[in-house]
Specification:
- It is a single chain.
- With about 140 residues, the chain is of the alpha/beta class.
- The protein has a single domain, classed as Periplasmic binding protein-like II (D-Maltodextrin-Binding Protein, domain 2, 3-Layer(aba) Sandwich), CATH 3.40.190.10.
- Strands 3-2-4-1-5 form a 5-stranded mixed sheet, with helices on both faces.
- The longest helix is centred in the N-terminal third of the chain and has 20 residues.
Length: about 140
């Protein structure tokens, strides 16, 4: 039988982790050549579910995403879509196969995400708050309001 204090500690950790994810912890970043000044939450959702295929300047949207186990992917799936990373990625894979979404670029950590986004104006992804503190000039934060 599990001691009661262990169960309470696990529950407290789950509540703290959940509130951290809800409070933020990740920011949307884009290539600095992309003129998009900000996005609403629904617009950001449309970017990551494939409904938005082009930016305002005509550049194709290219997602930079992590694997099912990456913290950013877990945050993205649960915060924007209310599903697990596994479920989100399965749907994204279907949409790529059908041709509804461009094939995403993979990056499992902040440094790789930033490096990928530097490569072109259509690229967009999420990095942690800490990862966004020292972005290179070719990468900019997109406020989500």
């Amino acid at each position: 039988m599990t001691p009661r204090w262990i169960l309470c500690a696990c529950l407290a950790l789950a509540v703290v982790s959940r509130s951290r994810a809800d409070a933020g912890g990740y920011v949307l970043v884009k290539n600095a050549k992309n003129p998009t000044p900000s996005l609403t939450r629904d617009e950001a959702k449309n970017v990551f579910n494939g409904h938005t295929k082009e930016w305002g300047n005509g550049e194709a949207v290219i997602l930079v995403i992590g694997s099912e186990d990456s913290p950013a992917m877990t945050w993205l799936a649960s915060t924007l879509f209310g599903v697990s990373a596994k479920t989100f990625l399965a749907k994204l894979k279907q949409d790529v196969f059908k041709g509804d979404v461009r094939h995403p670029v993979s990056a499992d950590d902040d440094a790789k995400t930033v490096k990928r986004i530097e490569a072109g104006p259509g690229l967009v992804g999420f990095v942690s708050d800490d990862g966004a503190k020292a972005l290179p000039p070719d990468v900019a934060v997109v406020p989500v309001r």
